[in-house]
User: What shape does this take?
Amino acid sequence: MPAILAMIGADRVVAKYDFRGIRLHVDAPLQEGAVVALNKSQAHYLSTVLRLKSDDRVLVFNGSDGEWDAAIEVQRRAAVLHIGAKTRAQTEPTDLHYLFAPLKAARLDYMIQKAVEMGVSRLQPVLTRHGQVTRVNPSRMRANAIEAAEQCGILTLPEIAAPAALSQVIAEHGVDRTLIFCDEDADVSDPLAALGAAPRRLPLSVLIGPEGGFAEDERLALLKLPNVVRLALGPRILRADTAAVAALALVQAVLGDWR
Assistant: This one.
């Protein structure tokens, strides 16, 4: 919370973000005076679920043009937004890729939402030998990313990549990118110290494997990459969705934009 507060005077603190306002993502260019038609789902949500009326205000963003104040106009079986003034400039994403073995639907939904909240700029499903899930739904992943951004004041949406085999990910790994390889077999008693010894630079990638663990040849191939930090996440075995939150929090605190 302190990172998003601005002190006004000596006795009053005001948040920079409007946490009470309704925020909506749209796939349309945004500028003052523009009129944006909402899809049926958005129109239903605003007019029927939230019971907004014409001239009620919402905040709107598209991932590239910043955040804008807008007035809703409720029409018969439809709704449009009249774009007003810009409320926040577009933020630049951190170059933080999250690589993960796919999970079953509900836990994958949770993991995507938390990764977006943690500032991930790219979501990369990775297929490994011991993974139990081989398919993901990109549309569902995007919907969860949008929902997290709407709820948390985030303006930049992550890129959602197609699933790729671990061998492909290794082959395409850039030599200038630091890979944080989360491995339950790593002999690391202090993950903070391990990260502290890593190069303090972006870009970064964080890799979480399947709950079945990495095969030994996969582990050896990863360790041959340049700029690899092998990391254990403490003395307990974590579920993959829990490991995602733990790893991303550690990385952002030590190497990322929390510093």
Summary: Residues 138-152 form the longest helix (15 residues). Residues 21 and 58 are 6 Å apart (CA to CA).
